[in-house]
Amino acid sequence: MTTDADADAAAGDAVSGETYTASVIGGTGFTGGELLRLLSGHPNFEVVQATSRSADNMTVGRSHPNLRGLDLRFSDPDDLESVDVLFSATPHGVSMGQIDAYFEAADTVVDLSADFRLPEADAYDEWYDGHESPEYLERAEYALPELNRENLAGADLIAGGGCNATATILGLKPLVDAGVLDPETDQVVVDVKVGSSEGGAGGGAASSHPERSGVVRPYAPTSHRHEAEIEAYLGLSVSFTVHAVEMVRGASATCHVFPGDPVSKGDLWGAYRDAYADERFMRIVSGGGGVYRYPEPKAVAGTNYGEVGFELDPGNRRVVVFSAIDNMMKGSAGQAVHAANIALDLPEDAGLEFEGLHPVGSP
Amino acid sequence: MTTDADADAAAGDAVSGETYTASVIGGTGFTGGELLRLLSGHPNFEVVQATSRSADNMTVGRSHPNLRGLDLRFSDPDDLESVDVLFSATPHGVSMGQIDAYFEAADTVVDLSADFRLPEADAYDEWYDGHESPEYLERAEYALPELNRENLAGADLIAGGGCNATATILGLKPLVDAGVLDPETDQVVVDVKVGSSEGGAGGGAASSHPERSGVVRPYAPTSHRHEAEIEAYLGLSVSFTVHAVEMVRGASATCHVFPGDPVSKGDLWGAYRDAYADERFMRIVSGGGGVYRYPEPKAVAGTNYGEVGFELDPGNRRVVVFSAIDNMMKGSAGQAVHAANIALDLPEDAGLEFEGLHPVGSP
Amino acid sequence: MTTDADADAAAGDAVSGETYTASVIGGTGFTGGELLRLLSGHPNFEVVQATSRSADNMTVGRSHPNLRGLDLRFSDPDDLESVDVLFSATPHGVSMGQIDAYFEAADTVVDLSADFRLPEADAYDEWYDGHESPEYLERAEYALPELNRENLAGADLIAGGGCNATATILGLKPLVDAGVLDPETDQVVVDVKVGSSEGGAGGGAASSHPERSGVVRPYAPTSHRHEAEIEAYLGLSVSFTVHAVEMVRGASATCHVFPGDPVSKGDLWGAYRDAYADERFMRIVSGGGGVYRYPEPKAVAGTNYGEVGFELDPGNRRVVVFSAIDNMMKGSAGQAVHAANIALDLPEDAGLEFEGLHPVGSP
Amino acid sequence: MTTDADADAAAGDAVSGETYTASVIGGTGFTGGELLRLLSGHPNFEVVQATSRSADNMTVGRSHPNLRGLDLRFSDPDDLESVDVLFSATPHGVSMGQIDAYFEAADTVVDLSADFRLPEADAYDEWYDGHESPEYLERAEYALPELNRENLAGADLIAGGGCNATATILGLKPLVDAGVLDPETDQVVVDVKVGSSEGGAGGGAASSHPERSGVVRPYAPTSHRHEAEIEAYLGLSVSFTVHAVEMVRGASATCHVFPGDPVSKGDLWGAYRDAYADERFMRIVSGGGGVYRYPEPKAVAGTNYGEVGFELDPGNRRVVVFSAIDNMMKGSAGQAVHAANIALDLPEDAGLEFEGLHPVGSP
């Protein structure tokens, strides 16, 4: 394990804890770029490798203009350098085949794909195309700290959650924990709105600017794979529908919950305060004055914050829960770095201090 | 009643039926402008007056740049000219006080506000600020042809529906009529996404461009007034939530329906085909190939079309219904002209032939 | 030549003049779709064929959701049906090779590509990849009516102009005609802003929604091919730069003109009124009150209108000219139909009556 | 002067140099909010007061949702607390009347309005409404470090530049310094595109979302006040036109320069490298591969970076220069903090380390 606190201090970074070498596999993608942004500005990480088959030997800044100042070129994913922490941002199905190689190269592996985020192999048979390395599933820890913090300390295989699942779990978990929502019997409808970055850097006709602009497009009316995570981690079977809307980054989940027993506004405040009052990256935004009275992707764009809020609909005893995140941050790269910070016993917000912008356009 | 078919023919318009003089009250607003656009291009209407207190004597084109070619100036709403048909596009609460004056000036009144769209006075006590002229409520006919065509023929007081209610009713009515959805017992969650034109031309901090751009903003988490229409015309109490999203015109309703009895994809196709196969302005868009596989506001922007589509979620026996309209057209001015065409026995699509654009940006 | 005025009359269309059969070659592209929209709503055209290699036998509505109601399927471009008028919307370089086949199938050919829009073959050597059928260049008439109306009557080969050239020529021609601008000696800088539809339906990384959204992107800093048209038809060598901005359809040209001799506001009004006072599709928008005081793409989106306006900068004797069009309409398909109307002695605005929308979002 | 390096260190911030107390006058506006964001995250500043008449006693987070975590309420601007540095973000004309009070409260004043950015009083007579406190003009230092770094050290009155002037000066200064551009004789046309935040938090009909969305709107065809700064600091009289385009934050200046003598690509690279190679916040982006080959507001949104690039147009001996900044950062609040860092001998990038996001939507 390398330690160059001196160099770091010289560079003017705050140093608490050691410095770890890191690599990013799949660096040209959107979440790969977000990882490179976060890690290159992180006081405890030194990025020594970013891989890309298609952009081998090209500068990182060519793919990610915000990183033009970064002196780093993509290298061949078949030549992995030895690092403390390897972050993989490859498409689903890749890292399950590379996991042995990953662990040969690194002590800790953080995977942002879906390959290790479900606990049971048969869930992969049902929702994906099966699993090549099921023996790793038990070893993997789900990256969402608000759900799984206690198990992340010292974890060596961390599996990032899905962005839509993350938004939903953050919104509903407090109600489950408080007993307001009974996963066995109560009905929940989750209506998600997401930005175009969720489709990744590839694109295609549907994601070309003229076709994708200004849509309210049902892209997963039913059977979205993220249902599997919600089932696995909340024990909850939700009615789940995802829409593409006009933004690039952001995911907003509106959860319509029908508790079996009557619930009060006070019960809801209690549930969310118990869950998130001490959470560094969670905000409860519910009512009050001004323009921004509920969670909005705009308000958290570029940050690792999750915002949750709620209203009570007396008429039909419905609880409406709003949850907003940046799909590439709290929903992917930010969550991964947050989890790595915990696993390595670093300050939870190291490298994640950006507070976001106001005003911003379409995030 | 004036008739100048000759002049019209000379102008190169198709003439079937007579020509009616029309006035638009509240002409500077968005729906007022839309009415002026539709009526000035309508082969059977001649716009003789458009009123505005704030823009008295200014050209219509100053408020509505698309109407720069129209030789018409706003006049004082206190000096109503005698016309065949008066269209009122004033804010809620105005026309209920002006209705006697309206009928002194016109044989037929088409009101786009909420003032006459509910059948019972007590509904106004519950959802609005009461009603000044309840004696007109029974006389008023709800403008939505797909719901109320038979009663619109010869009607002299037509009440335009609310845009969110219209999108919802168009999406759910076929299921109610087919018995797939039992209004008494089945649960329905409606999650609506709307554009900024729904806020009207006024504006305010929340609708300023920097604050409003790119939002996914819950602006009516519960208790939206349009629930009253859905209750009144479908006998259905829905769990209703409205979000503002990044577009100017458009309303999209996603209806999550939980039928008591099992339903098949075939049942759904049957229900929607029975309801809309012969409707001039309804399109069933459900699955199939290409980019636009479900209803989208973009695909109907500027037109009087409504698009509906659906999917079946076997897992939890849910039917997901998508309904998309242009809130200012099928959801307001277009619906009003459509209803007036029926009331006056004109071709249903007279003045409403625009087919929409592709591609378009944020509608 | 077919004539079915009866059928048309029965269909409720206004009929002045005969009806012509038409085909659209390259129907899946954006301008092809726009042609199909315009021609299918045109009282004097009957679309009998739309071709596409990639979408052979698929419905037109699958590519263009606004045309879902159109009962037409794409067919093989190698089997051209005999028609009165063939509209070709293929990529540059295709129609110059197909032109003989086009004339075997049709009496009149309207080409929307660049293949016949320059009068001299050597201009193709300089700006394009040379020309396969230079013998047709003299026969071709430039489609812009405001520039070339007198030569369009009876023309059998019509070449549509480039959208950026069209916006520029419409803005500057009145100054050249009035002698305010001397093409030989005066300097002109043209700074153009265009929407993503100009890139066509293909796409690619640069036009994917996440990368293309919200840009102010110099995509042709110098040497844009449309300079050749401006040179050819105005005798003017302009300093030309094109930027991509956040919209889908629209082109706006800001022309900074430096007349050799002093000019007054009155001179400018005179020049533009002389040029456009009687033009059906041109609007002079310059100053005045309200929000829309100058030309804007938004105000003409979906229409065949061109808007021009100007200001005088006394400080440095500069005339600033603004010109706005819809690149797919006045800048392509609308211009083509307008020219065809003239060639066939039909009403100039037949099929082009749409007045545009207000408000609209990003057009 | 307060010093609490210990507290800061405990908070995990990097500390080089002392900590200064700061206040922000006019804290509800966009630039005021940006100052609060930057200063609250700045290792060397402690915000002790933010004033607002309209929002007195309300939380800062109510106006700026990204600052919800900040424990600070607006206070009355008539009760200024004693601080080391006072930042004023009031509308033009306010601080010139408050300047004495400002200096009673603070050792150093940084003003973001236009009130002290011009060196000569008569320039205020010509471009603004005159000046109340001309005696301060000589004392004021223009905040743009790339133009005026040497005079900022130890300055106690710093005047932030205008965003459009900043973009233009950053683009043209290297050409003036290198002698490529002769301010006396060479002609320069500057065509600027800006976002809606430039209009401030106020709003009005023209900036309401439905009217402002998707525009390419000439809002200052001629005689923009920022010309005065370009004249004052580059000795250059430019032909200047500003357009509003669809984004919230960002300013892009395209400068069309016509050098009297021939210039080569190498001359241009030399001029820009000489000027900016050692500048912390300037990037030269010109050609090369990938999607982002020239400066773009998107690529610098939220950051203090300025991007400049150029192309040579041999045909008419034109140099096209592109310059992009975030109007609220490099064009206002970021520039102000950068200048304050220099004045107080702090690291230039303290509090300004954010590298920006990719991808982002409309910034």
Describe the structure.
4 copies of one chain form a homotetramer. By secondary structure, chain A is of the alpha/beta class. Helix content of chain A is 29%, strand content 22%. Chain A is built from 12 helices and 14 strands. Chain A has helices spanning 5-10, 30-40, 60-63, 95-105, 121-127, 145-152, 163-177, 209-212, 227-234, 265-276, 297-300, 329-343; strands at 20-25, 45-51, 74-75, 83-88, 106-111, 141-142, 157-159, 187-194, 216-220, 239-245, 251-258, 282-284, 306-313, 318-325. The first copy, chain A, has a 7-stranded parallel sheet with strand order 3-2-1-4-5-7-6, sandwiched between helices. In chain A, helix 6 (145-152) links the parallel strand 6 (141-142) and strand 7. Chain A starts with a helix and ends in a 20-residue tail after the last helix. Residues 1-14 of chain A have low confidence and may be disordered. Chains in contact: A-B, A-C, A-D, B-C, B-D, C-D. Chains A and B meet through strand 8, strand 9, strand 10, strand 11 and strand 13 of A and strand 8, strand 9, strand 10, strand 11 and strand 13 of B. Chains A, B, C, D: Pathway: Amino-acid biosynthesis; L-lysine biosynthesis via AAA pathway; L-lysine from L-alpha-aminoadipate (Thermus route): step 3/5; Amino-acid biosynthesis; L-arginine biosynthesis.
